[in-house]
């Protein structure tokens, strides 16, 4: 089945999106990575130890106070190159149909990605991190401290994915 | 120092927000919780085993296919009652000043909360979950499968918070 990078594959399904959005996001910075095309991005952040730079707009830099005391952060960013109307998808590397909300695909009604990154250091209002797999220039929308007490669940299972192993 | 629920405290700092937002989000559902006021919400999701209901709009329900195979999910939701212009905050329960990006406060440039929840069951296009601490009626913006391989970091440390223990 032919498809372009973001084309619709057999087994995929789109819906009509609402006529308008309900709230607005500000891009608060940009993520600098070594990957200039989607094909060049690692399939999974664990495949890469690449060092990436998170640039924060000067307006918001004071919000970084004490971030340097965190070993890990949650980054939220906006995958603005993705279609938003897919509810069923057949990811190329799996070849089977799954609901959008059972996938981490960038194609989703709100293309907000969540990545847990290791913070290497803070320099001049920039974060130096590892653990990202996104395109160079991706817009940043939030930085949060990672609390193992609430965010870490080592025993969590994604059943459909486990069966593919 | 007097303050109302979302007032500015001594030691807090606001910035002027950009003139316009850069992208729009759709509210894809609503979260039903037992808490009708901010004061009633648990301070931390771990303090509560309350069962909450995540309602997905019919338009997007097919996207739930295979979500039932996940033990845990990441929910992203929109904390639409919070100011967005704070860069330094003095949370009442800590009493010390921290940057917005070192806090999980709902007050942030983009009020997107991230919670890891346990999925109890899926019923008629609704998710029954535990591990939430948000207001009843909070708008939902995304559901993602929680992958322990990339999302779980048991050894993560938030230095400024640890020193408060």
Chain-wise SSE layout:
The structure is a homodimer of 165-residue chains.
Chain A: E1 13-14, E2 23-25, E3 29-32, E4 51-56, E5 72-78, E6 86-89, E7 98-99, E8 112-123, E9 126-130, E10 138-145, H1 148-151, H2 159-162
Antiparallel strand pairs in A: 1-6, 3-4, 3-10, 4-9, 5-8, 5-10, 6-7, 8-9
How would you describe this structure in keywords?
homodimer, three-stranded antiparallel β-sheet, 10 strands, 165 residues, disordered N terminus
Tell me what the structure shows.
2 copies of one chain form a homodimer. Chain A is globular and about 50 Å long. In chain A, strand 6 (86-89) and strand 7 form a beta hairpin. Chain A has helices at residues 148-151, 159-162, and strands at residues 13-14, 23-25, 29-32, 51-56, 72-78, 86-89, 98-99, 112-123, 126-130, 138-145. Chain A is mainly beta. Chains A and B meet through strand 2, strand 5, strand 7, strand 8 and strand 10 of A and strand 2, strand 5, strand 7, strand 8 and strand 10 of B.
Number of E-state strands of chain A = 10
Major sheet of chain A, described briefly? Answer: 6 strands, antiparallel, barrel
User: Which regions of chain A contain 5 or more consecutive residues with pLDDT less than 50?
Assistant: 1-5
Give the mean pLDDT of chain A: 91
How much helix is in the residues of chain A? under 10%
Structural class of chain A: mainly beta
Q: In a few lines, what is going on in this structure?
A:
Two copies of one chain form a homodimer. Chain A is mainly beta and 165 residues long. Chain A has two helices and ten strands, in the order E-E-E-E-E-E-E-E-E-E-H-H.
């Amino acid at each position: 089945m032919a498809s372009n990078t973001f084309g619709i594959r057999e087994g995929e399904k789109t819906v009509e999106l609402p006529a308008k959005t309900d709230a607005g996001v500000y891009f608060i910075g940009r993520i600098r990575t070594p990957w200039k095309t989607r094909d060049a991005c690692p399939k999974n952040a664990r495949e890469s130890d690449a060092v990436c730079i998170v640039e924060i707009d000067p307006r918001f830099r004071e919000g970084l106070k004490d971030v340097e005391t965190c070993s890990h952060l949650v980054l939220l960013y906006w995958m603005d190159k993705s279609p938003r109307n897919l509810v069923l998808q057949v990811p190329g590397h799996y070849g089977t149909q799954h609901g959008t909300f059972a996938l981490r695909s960038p194609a989703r009604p709100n293309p907000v990605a969540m990545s847990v990154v290791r913070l290497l250091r803070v320099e001049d209002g920039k974060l130096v991190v590892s653990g990202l797999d996104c395109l160079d220039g991706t817009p940043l929308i939030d930085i949060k401290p990672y609390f193992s007490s609430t965010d870490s669940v080592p025993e969590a299972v994604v059943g459909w994915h486990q069966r593919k192993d």
